[in-house]
Amino acid sequence: MRLVVQRVSCAAVTVAGERIAGIDAGLLVLAGVGRDDGDGAARRLAAKVAGLRIFGDEEVGVPLGQGRGGVPLGQRRGGVPLGQRRGKMNRSVTDVGGEVLVVSQFTLYADTRKGYRPSFVDAARPEVAVGVLEAFVEGLKSAGLQVAEGRFGAHMEVSLVNDGPVTILLEG
Question: Which one of 66, 75, 107, 167 is the catalytic residue?
Answer without folding.
Answer: 107
